Amino acid sequence: MTTLDAPKRASWLRRWIWGIALVSVCCIGAVGMVVQLLVDQSGDDLGDQLLPAGCGNSNPVDPDADLPSIAGYNEDQIYNAAIIIAVGQDLEMPPRAWIIAVATAMQESRLTNLGYLGDRNDHDSLGLFQQRPSSGWGTPEQIQDPVYAATKFYEKLDTIEGWEHMSLTEAAQSVQISAYPFAYAKHEPDATEIVNALTGGGGRASAVSVSLGECTAPGELSAAGWIIPADGPIWSGFRTSERPTHQGVDIGVPRGTAVVAASSGTVITAQCNAFNPDGSPASCDVDGSPQIAGCGWYVNILHAGDYLTRYCHFGSAPLVKEGDVVQAGQIIGYSGSSGRSSGPHLHFEVHLNGDRSSAGAVDPIAFMASVGAPLE
Known about the structure:
The chain is an alpha+beta fold. The protein has 2 domains: 6-204, no CATH class; 234-370, Glucose Permease (Domain IIA), CATH 2.70.70. Helices cover 24% and strands 14% of the residues.
């Protein structure tokens, strides 16, 4: 493992002391919040499939401290991830940058500080980020120093205008210029898990804030890459006693409110879904009623990690179509009351494993809290 020099140790120690002082700071007055475990229709615990919940504390990382074990990663990989995060903290880059950097290293090197691999080398690529001496990243010796390599990655990322609000794969590609530009996205959930585990929840902080203990405010992108789809009170919850088959939550918003994609992903459904009591198709261009079946105008988006989000009851046809790639926060339509609806609102669902059925649905309130974009 790389031995860190005294100045960096001192810098990380200072941040560690501040972290101890601030570790109890939490968003919206909640201290030690624990999100309820999610249960599917058969009663099986789904909580371990979600990111840890909380307020997004960003504890300083000391790579030479005892680091937690994370399933699927060995000690050296976790150590290298810790260096990447600690360098980002030292450079005062926000938590979103740490996730992007860790995910990039996962794709490029599996978080392994790779040396020269002979015929297996991609040109002269080396180190955690497979940076190339011939492209000006540094000498082979420098690039194989994880602290140096992470520093160069962040410095380049910081020159990309608007990177904070890009999808992870777009931001990473802007730095790496890879032959496989869409390969980074699949690592976002695991990278977020690692950042959360090593920082005490940094992946749930605001994407553009470096304050410790700060949660994402409504309308802000979380470090995990999520944002609330619309800002309003929860009118009806997930599978309540009154509505046990309600597979999402109803967010109270006025007619015509912009609805945004909760995270970057691919639109897999954008259509009208409404039926009269006799089973015949109903129009989605007029207000529905409790007697109409279906979501009305609605959209399904598939995200990294096989998370799926659903948005129902738009007042007009969605602004996106099947196959569109959307960014977190992109407007996908406007709220209304089409389909089975008694008034304007947004019905919002979250599903695991890309499962569009009720079996895949989980509580959006718990899920969105777990990714740093609380609905309430």
